[in-house]
Specification:
Elements: H1 3-27, H2 34-41, H3 45-51, H4 55-85, H5 92-107, H6 114-127, H7 130-133, H8 136-154, H9 160-178, H10 198-213
Helix pairs in contact: 1-2, 1-4, 1-6, 4-5, 4-8, 5-6, 5-10, 6-9, 9-10
């Protein structure tokens, strides 16, 4: 195949991925039909099947092209902090900012997905689509291990179980916030919260998450009192 043919195929695949990415954000995975994707991408169903084979494979393809840059940025940010710390613990605030700075870099770079991908990623974690449950750990294994290890070093007073609970809550809050969800709209007619501005979200989210991670150690046996 000549270069022109390869470019056209690449352009078609990219259009399909871009269309699917936007539609998954707008409607979710289950509500997005192949017909919607083909109409948005201006291609026929045969083109989607040729490049991806199935809706599940297309969904994974949307993430594969975006996850690597996010993971690399987040790990590189942490690498720099740990190198500067020269063996000393990095503060929890700086650890959380390292991760969110990576997300913000992606959110402000349309070539790497921009805010659309950040919201899609967040929405996917919240909705926990089965098609990604097996593939996501492979993409995130190093990222999760590095951030968990750095947080454990910063909070030596926490045992492994409590640390995992806190990280679970922390990243749940982060992904939910970046998904653009404004829970206050359920209770307040005109809330002032702007859940669509990633940088504003990070400004208020970092101290909230840090406060939860660094809260006093839970009393032993407290769980039995509920």
């Amino acid at each position: 195949m000549n270069g022109l043919g390869e470019t056209r195929q690449l352009d078609t695949a990219t259009r399909i991925l871009d269309a699917a990415e936007a539609l998954f954000v707008e409607h979710g995975f289950e509500a997005t039909s192949m017909r919607m994707i083909t109409q948005r991408a201006e291609v026929n169903l045969a083109a989607v099947n040729y490049h991806f084979g199935s809706k599940d494979a297309l969904f994974q393809g949307v993430f594969t092209r975006r996850l690597t840059p996010l993971t690399q940025l987040a790990v590189q940010n942490l690498d720099r902090l740990e190198a500067a710390a020269q063996g000393e613990p990095v503060s929890v605030e700086r650890i959380m900012r390292a991760f969110m700075d990576a997300a913000l870099d992606i959110a402000h770079d349309p070539k790497r997905g921009g805010v659309i991908f950040v919201r899609l990623l967040s929405r996917t974690f919240i909705e926990a689509h089965p098609v990604l449950r097996e593939s996501l750990p492979w993409h995130y294994e190093e990222l999760v291990a590095r951030y968990a290890k750095a947080t454990a070093k910063a909070l030596p007073e926490l045992d492994a179980i409590e640390l995992q609970w806190r990280l679970n809550f922390a990243f749940s809050a982060i992904f939910n916030a970046f998904a653009g969800n404004n829970i206050l709209r359920l209770f307040v007619i005109d809330p002032v919260v702007n859940a669509r501005d990633p940088r504003l979200i990070a400004t208020y989210l970092v101290p909230f998450v840090v406060a939860g991670l660094t809260a006093p150690v839970t009393a032993k046996g407290a769980g039995s009192s509920f």
